[in-house]
Amino acid sequence: MESPFLSILALLAILLLVAVTGGVGYLTLADWRDRRLRENEKRETRRSTPKRR
Fold it and tell me: Mean pLDDT across the stretch 5-23?
């Protein structure tokens, strides 16, 4: 017979694993989005600045 403590511990471990995985996914997505925005701003800055001779 399984102890209720072990069931709660296993459930808690699964919930923490899901939370950490979601956090890593969120940070990866945010980093990708920010990098893309910075690259677009850099391109726009290069286009709008006049060329020097």
Answer: 97
CB atoms within 10 A of CB 23: 10
In this structure, the dihedral spanned by the alpha carbons of residues 32, 36, 37 and 43, taken in order and rounded to 10 degrees, is 160
Global confidence as pTM = 0.69
Closest CA to 13 of 2, 1, 5, 25: 5
What does the pLDDT average to over 6-33?
97
User: Looking at this protein, which amino acid is placed at residue 45?
Assistant: T
Q: Which residue has the tokens 């950490």?
A: 20
User: How big, in percent rounded to 5, are the helix, strand and coil portions of the chain?
Assistant: 85, 0, 15
